[in-house]
Amino acid sequence: MLPYEKYFLEALEQRFGIERETVIAFATSLEALSELFQILASGGEPDFKAGRVVLIGLVNHAHHLLIGGLQGLDAGNGPVWSACLRGLMEVFGACVLISDRPGSAPNYLEHIKAGKLRSAAERGHPGLGKDLDR
User: Fold this and answer.
1) Torsion sign over Cα 25, 105, 68, 114
2) CA distances from residue 77 to 72, 87, 98, 103 in whole angstroms, order as listed
3) Three-state DSSP class for 79?
4) Percent helix, strand, coil in the chain (nearest 5)?
5) List of long-range contacts for 66-71, beta carbons under 8 Å, 24+ apart
6) Has residue 7 been placed in a domain?
7) How many of the other CB atoms lie within 10 Å of CB of 106?
8) What is the CATH number of the domain that holds 77?
9) What is the spatial distance between Cα 37 and Cα 21, in angstroms, rounded to a whole number?
10) Does some domain include residue 79?
11) pTM of the predicted model as reported, rounded to 2 decimal places
12) Total structural domains in the chain?
């Protein structure tokens, strides 16, 4: 862990009371998304263009949800934090589904039910749903 990462984790724990395991789980999820993006972005076939768009969108979405959630916490707005956290869980679920079948990435340009994403997230990180329900 880099020094600034350790400082960031400690600040989230102290200031907002967020458990370290929760922050590490989301950081790990974002890292997995980045690695998945690298795999798909390295292919030169036209079939992967839509998949690239999906992954770029997921990275962008995850970034905004994380920043928005932290800003919600900073402002004392728990409902915003909660909504952003659920959104991050859905992004992680999409990552799990795409990791299982990388060729399915273009399918995520269409609507996917939140329950399917939550189930996939739970499969990828058992207990995540219970953590979020608290």
Assistant:
1) negative
2) 5, 16, 32, 38
3) helix
4) 85, 0, 15
5) 66/26, 66/30, 70/12, 70/16
6) no
7) 16
8) 1.20.140
9) 24
10) yes
11) 0.63
12) 1
Task: Round the average pLDDT of the chain to a whole number and report it.
Answer: 78
Residues 6+ apart with CB under 8 A from 44: none
Cα 55 to the chain's mean position, in Å? 11
Q: Which residue has the tokens 């990462």?
A: 5
Q: Which domain holds residue 100?
A: 19-133
Q: Where are the beta strands (DSSP E) in the chain?
A: none
CA 97 centroid distance within chain: 12
Q: Identify whether the C-beta of residue 88 lies closer than 8 Å to the C-beta of residue 29.
A: yes
Distance between CA atoms of residues 89 and 119, nearest Å = 10
pLDDT digits (tens, 9 = 90+) for 78-92: 899 889 988 988 888
The answer to whether residue 65 sits within a structural domain is yes
- Is residue 2 domain-resident? no
End-to-end CA distance of the chain: 28
Nearest to 92 by CA among 64, 128, 48: 128
